[in-house]
Design brief:
Elements lengths: L1 E3 L3 E6 L2 E5 L4 E5 L6 E4 L3 E3 L1 H9 L4 E4 L4 E4 L7 H9 L3 H30 L15 H19 L16 H23 L18 H7 L3 H14 L12 H15 L7 H18 L12
Parallel strand pairs: 1-5, 2-6, 5-7
Antiparallel strand pairs: 2-3, 3-4, 7-8
Helix pairs in contact: 3-4, 3-7, 5-6, 5-7, 5-9, 7-8
């Protein structure tokens, strides 16, 4: 993963990338590069660089204060058949999948709270994850209620954190937004690799240009990002720059910790779980094979 903050220019130099700032430059090999992450505005990247990264299947994430953009190369696979069946899923199947995504998210959040409660030798309240909704509208309300309960427990472990507010103007919420943007980019890459349409939502509403399935699918992996941000915030003081972005040192700390968690070896890495779960989702769509969610458990 390569983090580039604002006011930089990216050029190609052979098989490497050359990143230049006003008074310095850095040459980076693409040999083990998984993703390019750009934060903020005023980063210049030529069409040659975009084509080069595309040829290597390296996604580019642009994280902004109000929106995120992921540039991902399409894969060659049986996209037409998979997407035709995805679009034809009945509402019961869509709600079932959405429930599994939410179950994975909330159980993962509870596991993160239990992890930090063990470190702090405190107790967290048990949250019963029971989703009884039979339609999208009811499920959205259930998800919101469960997420609020989980955040009430999680915020106890972050100094001076009042609670989750997407695109909030405080450093912790900014850090969570940034970590989520990486989860979205990885989810986009995995879904496209499986031949699925990242814009066709099951729970999140379909809107032009909105990667709704990415938002649905990524719910399971958000606890990984939450863990990384809480771990960093407990050790270091995160702060914002004059434009409202996390300062460079904070971005680097969150990126490093999240990258470490994603690549920590278990039976498989969490990074690999994105592709395994996207493939499981494809099997559900094509052959109605039961889909079980990814549930994050910190180590």
């Amino acid at each position: 993963m390569l983090l580039i903050v604002k006011n930089a220019a990216i050029k190609r130099r052979g098989s490497d990338l050359l990143i230049s700032w006003d008074n310095s430059s850095k040459q980076v090999s693409t040999l083990d590069l998984e993703m390019v992450v750009i934060v903020g505005n005023n980063v210049e990247m030529s069409s040659e660089v975009i084509n080069f990264l595309s040829s290597l299947n390296i996604p580019v994430l642009i994280h902004g204060k109000r929106a995120d953009t992921a540039l991902v190369t399409p894969f060659v696979n049986t996209i037409a058949e998979i997407r035709r069946k995805l679009y034809a899923l009945d509402e019961d199947s869509q709600v079932l999948l959405a429930k599994r995504f939410i179950e994975g998210k909330v159980r993962g959040m509870i596991n993160v709270a239990k992890y930090f409660s063990y470190i702090d030798k405190t107790q967290v309240r048990e949250i019963e994850v029971r989703l009884s909704a039979r339609d999208r509208k009811s499920l959205i309300l259930e998800e919101a209620a469960l997420s609020r309960e989980a955040w009430e427990e999680l915020k106890k472990f972050v100094p001076s954190f009042e609670g989750r507010k997407p695109r909030g103007e405080d450093p912790i919420n900014r850090a969570i937004d940034y970590a989520y943007s990486i989860i979205y980019a990885l989810s986009t890459h995995a879904l496209i690799a499986a031949g699925l349409d990242p814009y066709y939502g099951l729970l999140h509403a379909n809107q032009p240009g909105r990667p709704s399935l990415v938002y649905d699918f990524s719910e399971m992996f958000k606890p990984v990002a939450i863990h990384a941000v809480i771990a960093v915030a407990r050790r270091s003081r995160l702060s914002l720059d004059s434009e409202g972005y996390l300062k460079k040192d904070g971005l680097e700390l969150v990126t490093k910790h999240l990258y470490g968690v994603l690549h920590k070896r278990r039976r498989t890495t969490i990074r690999g779980e994105f592709y395994r779960k996207a493939n499981d989702l494809k099997k559900f769509v094509l052959d109605a094979v039961d889909f079980q969610p990814f549930v994050y458990k910190p180590m």
